[in-house]
């Protein structure tokens, strides 16, 4: 599959494209949800929309550890990874508003849940696991999928993680739509949330 080009801040709006509301985000927006749902790719577009910095917890963990996520899992196990992830997310929640893409399992750590809930607007990106299974197939960098059938892993995650994602302030089901449409949904949901909170 060819990756979609990342949006550029310098690009003019496409004539006839939907006009998205522009408003200010009072705090960091943290995207949570299963692997492959779009936290990174929609997160980048969301940051571009608001002119805010984008940070990806998975990338920051790799930078901090000086190794890939697969190697962290191999050397320290999932528990070691979650502890590192907890510290990195705590650091990323300090400072001004930004868009934060979390890792799919970040909310399994109680301190990460607490911290995200206290310091960010949490937004659960959700879509059918059949769509996710197609997206994550043949991507060897996710250690939890190594030698496993993606749909089986995703079914397990629905059972164990959906109750955790339910703590999110906002839920957006993006279906199998394009990134552009998914971004519109996310911006509209944030707008409604922030207006409702005023
Ligand atoms: N709404 C969408 N429409 C089309 N493709 C999408 C959409 N969302 C994500 N994808 C594609 O699915 C793949 C995974 O997306 P992405 O890396 O953003 O997921 P993620 O939630 O960050 O996953 P992880 O938890 O593993 O980091 C990418 O190839 C991305 O382009
Ligand atoms: O769903 C998960 O537990 C994971 C998702 C990825 O974002 C990475 O954080 C890592 O591969 C673990
Ligand atoms: Mg990601």
UniProtKB/TrEMBL annotation:
Positions that bind ATP: 36-41, 142, 177
Biological processes, Gene Ontology terms: amino acid biosynthetic process; aromatic amino acid family biosynthetic process; chorismate biosynthetic process
Top EC group: transferase
Catalytic activity: shikimate + ATP = 3-phosphoshikimate + ADP + H(+)
Cofactor(s) for this UniProt protein: Mg(2+)
Subcellular localization(s) per the UniProt record: Cytoplasm
Family matches, as SUPFAM superfamilies: P-loop containing nucleoside triphosphate hydrolases (SSF52540)
Cofactor detail note: Binds 1 Mg(2+) ion per subunit.
EC number of this enzyme: 2.7.1.71
Cytoplasm in keyword set: yes
The protein's annotated pathway: Metabolic intermediate biosynthesis; chorismate biosynthesis; chorismate from D-erythrose 4-phosphate and phosphoenolpyruvate: step 5/7
GO molecular function term, any single one: ATP binding
Main location: cytoplasm
Keywords from the named record: Amino-acid biosynthesis, Aromatic amino acid biosynthesis, ATP-binding, Cytoplasm, Kinase, Magnesium, Metal-binding, Nucleotide-binding, Transferase
Record's keyword annotation contains Nucleotide-binding: yes
Protein residues bound to Mg(2+): 40
Stored Pfam families: SKI
GO-annotated cellular components: cytosol
PROSITE patterns: SHIKIMATE_KINASE
Subunit and interaction comment: Monomer.
Stated role: Catalyzes the specific phosphorylation of the 3-hydroxyl group of shikimic acid using ATP as a cosubstrate.
Protein family: Belongs to the shikimate kinase family.
Protein name: Shikimate kinase
């Amino acid at each position: 599959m060819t990756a979609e080009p990342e949006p550029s801040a310098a690009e003019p709006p496409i004539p006839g494209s939907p006009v998205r509301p522009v408003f200010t985000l009072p705090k960091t927006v943290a995207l949570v949800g299963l692997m492959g749902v779009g936290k990174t790719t929609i997160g980048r577009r969301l940051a571009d929309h608001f002119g805010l910095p984008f940070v990806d917890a998975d990338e920051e963990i790799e930078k901090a550890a000086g190794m890939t996520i697969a190697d962290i899992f191999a050397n320290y196990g999932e528990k070691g990874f979650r502890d590192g992830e907890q510290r990195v997310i705590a650091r990323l929640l300090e400072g001004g508003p930004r868009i934060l893409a979390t890792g799919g399992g970040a909310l399994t750590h109680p301190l990460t849940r607490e911290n995200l809930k206290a310091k960010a607007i949490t937004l659960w990106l959700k879509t059918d696991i059949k769509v996710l299974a197609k997206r994550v197939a043949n991507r060897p960098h996710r250690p939890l999928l190594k030698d496993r059938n993606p749909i089986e892993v995703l079914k397990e995650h629905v059972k164990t993680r959906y109750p955790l994602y339910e703590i999110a302030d906002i839920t957006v089901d993006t279906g199998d739509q394009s990134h552009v449409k998914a971004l519109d949904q996310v911006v509209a949901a944030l707008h409604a949330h922030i207006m409702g909170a005023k």
